[in-house]
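Researcher: We plan to redesign the surface later, but first we want a full-length starting point. Tokens attached.
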């Protein structure tokens, strides 16, 4: 009987729960630009989509490992924002695109007793900004 109780306790310790959050970036409310518009064209390439994934692992709530390069993109919300920026960077890395248009995010959070893993995947179209 004792072995059964220990086995049940051990199973509870190693089980994990996960959570998936889906988000689409929309306009940021309350942001206005008071300068003159820059004459530019945004050329979107819809022939293929770009994809990037970032994973961050935190052990004991203290030790964190993950990506160290991020896109300079202000993102609303606090769930996985650094992972989102790293995923955008990875999606645009090695291409000659300037921005990611219509990004769709999938955030997966997996937790167990000692380890938390946040995975962010972004998919969108690459676009080039051409100033006239």
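Model: Full-length starting sequence:
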């Amino acid at each position: 009987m004792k072995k059964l109780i220990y086995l049940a306790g051990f199973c509870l310790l190693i089980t994990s729960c996960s959570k998936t959050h889906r988000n689409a970036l929309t306009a940021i409310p309350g942001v206005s630009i008071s300068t003159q518009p820059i004459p530019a064209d945004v050329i979107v390439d819809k022939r293929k989509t770009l994809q990037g994934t970032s994973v961050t692992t935190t052990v004991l709530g203290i030790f964190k490992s993950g990506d160290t390069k991020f896109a300079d993109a202000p993102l609303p919300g606090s769930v996985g924002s650094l992972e989102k920026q790293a995923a955008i960077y990875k999606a645009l890395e090695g291409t000659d695109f300037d921005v990611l248009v219509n990004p769709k995010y999938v955030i997966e959070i997996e937790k167990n007793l000692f380890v938390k893993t946040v995975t962010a995947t972004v998919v969108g179209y690459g676009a080039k900004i051409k100033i006239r």
